[in-house]
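Limitations

Structures in this collection are predictions, not experimental determinations, and the ligand pose is part of the prediction. Treat each record accordingly. The example that follows, with oxa(dethia)-CoA as the small molecule, is included so readers can see exactly what is and is not provided: the inputs are given verbatim, and the output is the predicted complex.
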Amino acid sequence: MITRALIAGCGGYLPERVVPNDRLGADLGIETSDAWIVERTGIRQRHIAAPQETASSMGAEAARQALERAGIGAEAVDAVILATATPDQAFPASAVRVQQALGITRGFAFDLSAACTGFVYALGMADALIRTGQARCVLVIGSEVFSRILDWTDRGTCVLFGDGAGAVVLTAGEGGGTAADRGLLSTHLHSDGRFGDILLVDGGPGSNGQCGKLRMAGREVFRHAVSKLAAVVDEALEANGLGHEDVRWLVPHQANRRIIDAMGKKLKLPAERVVVTVDRHANTSAASIPLALAEAAGAGLIERGDLVVMEAIGGGLTWGAALARF
Ligand code: UT7
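Predicted complex:
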């Protein structure tokens, strides 16, 4: 028998304010159109955080829902890992603020920076903590307030992102060490700094204050996304002796509908097996996969035993995939 990290519960949080595409031009004076944004990205609207909301406050809300759905009390949490590119401040880590908001005074908490791949990286770290016996219950959160790092005069980027948070609770369980086990089967993480300048924030962190702005060479990132995501999904399946036919659900990073459709096609999955939220959430970076998971799991779509593929690419460049059996 080996120790596996089981997904015990998923939660999400979205700010109340919704901004549909057509308000970007009307209210913010951005030279764009609903037609352009829908055709190029599939995005129809995004949620925008209220002034008092931060990565930690939204992350805590998502974590509360994940714990509630798991039927686990906050006192059982050994570690909190919060993936974010928009922490409340440089330190304390926003993860420690989440710990405090949930009333957790033991264990440890830290932030993880891997841009849009942050949640997949955080799953990898949590999996390692659980497999090595350093923790039995880990809260993995992705929470982002990208509205504060967008250059609202750059129509090539500001229409693409939104705010939100998602969380999963991982708990230690046992498995036979085969791909039939429940829980995280494996994570596959990559980065290559040669591409650091095609997607970056040109200043320091601080979702509750002054910070740098996001810059992206969209077409170049798109090109990397299609090839690198396809390769890392193959790598994950091969590592577990699995094929496309074994995949029940694709829960991809939600950056662009065209990239998501290409990945679904690659896995030969029917459209209803690909979880899509980009139309309503836009790109919420590290929050996009846990938000999509929370939506699909909350609606009872993902069933016990289903094999789920998660994949993401983001600034760094970083990219990765995780395979989990629910
Ligand atoms: O989450 C991290 C990973 N990120 C991604 O995966 C994003 C990857 N990239 C993309 O999704 C796409 O490249 C974008 C959606 C960012 C852009 O789509 P595109 O088809 O690559 O468009 P483009 O940047 O090549 O721009 C095409 C045209 C340009 O006009 P010209 O030069 O052809 O006259 C842009 O100026 O569209 C124009 N444009 C816009 N027009 C209306 C750019 N942004 C807008 C806009 N509204 N918001």
